[in-house]
Amino acid sequence: MFAKLYDPLMKPLDIILIYKVRNRLLQKAYGEVLEIGSGTGLNFPHYPSAAEQITAIEPQRKLRDKSLPRAIRAGNSITVHEGIAEALPYPDNSFDTVVNTLVFCTIPEPEKAMKEIVRTVKPGGTVLFYEHVQPKNEVMRAVFNKATPLWKRICDGCHLNRDTETLIRNSPLEIVEKQASLNEIFIEITAKLPTEL
């Protein structure tokens, strides 16, 4: 059911905000790229030619199936695989870029996923995030906290109140650029893994 509704639900937000962010953020992707939680492939048309090989993982078969036509049309070399962020089936230091867009809200164990990202990105590599996060405004935070249990049931496990920015800041990644929108509910982060940990 969620796979059928995903694109229609995302379309208004994509038109207003996310399309431009995808286009801007993904221009930073290069080399061997891993996209975590690729969903229906909405990012695929935005990858630049510098993204030489894109490996996309998505745990839900119906979403993967819907993404395949976009992968073919995109023109880049994109392969889509079954996988979860908490147990990436790739060796250490495999990717130049790791892409995460609107995915950390649904990952069951985000701390494990972050460790896997750090493990699989190359030293000096780039990790790109576009996520909705727990609001800083106290009133909005209370509303999001109250709404999250119902929202998770409706939207396939999506947590409105995830503090993904703190998770990034507490990881070995170094934030080199951050932009926020819609009262800091959405954050766009470019991070690097230091060459020496």
TrEMBL record:
GO biological process: methylation
One Pfam family of this chain: Methyltransf_11
Protein keywords: Methyltransferase, Transferase
InterPro entries: Methyltransf_11 (IPR013216), SAM-dependent_MTases_sf (IPR029063), Thiol_S-MT (IPR052356)
One function term, GO molecular function aspect: S-adenosylmethionine-dependent methyltransferase activity
Chain ranges of the Methyltransferase type domain: 34-129
Protein name: Methyltransferase domain-containing protein
Species annotation: Alkalicoccus daliensis
Lineage: Bacteria, Bacillati, Bacillota, Bacilli, Bacillales
